[in-house]
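Review form for a predicted model. The reviewer records the input and the model, then writes brief findings.
Reviewer: anonymous (R2)
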Amino acid sequence: MEGVLTGVALVHLVPRLRRIRQLAENTKYFRSRLKEMGFIIYGNNDSPVVPVLLYMPAKVVAFAREMLARKIGVVVVGFPATPITEARARFCVSAAHTRDMLNQVLDCMNEVGDLLCLKFSRRKYSPQPDLCDETDFELDS
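Model under review:
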């Protein structure tokens, strides 16, 4: 009887583990791509809730409208729910999102970020972070 219960538990556990792994992969991909584009992201790196800073209250509505015009609904949050200079858009990544879906949102974010000047990060990100340590390699003359 114990073996049957273990088998039943595994049948239910394996799909859940796949979804958890897929959620972690989607979250890591989405956050890293946004950072590469120059957006400033708040929150824990492992969290599927991804707050993208918009900073200026006047850009919150413009951002939401531009994204909606591209058929992407976003949750925007501003003052008084946040400090006045920390307005943000909040994305919720899911295990059900495909890479194509994420790329579509990322492409739109890139366009809107350029249009509204929302890319505030000064950091240089590499798709291979192990190879980029921001060390200055100037040669002596």
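Findings: The chain has a mean pLDDT of 84.
Further findings: Residues 2-37 form the longest helix (36 residues).
Recommendation: see findings above.
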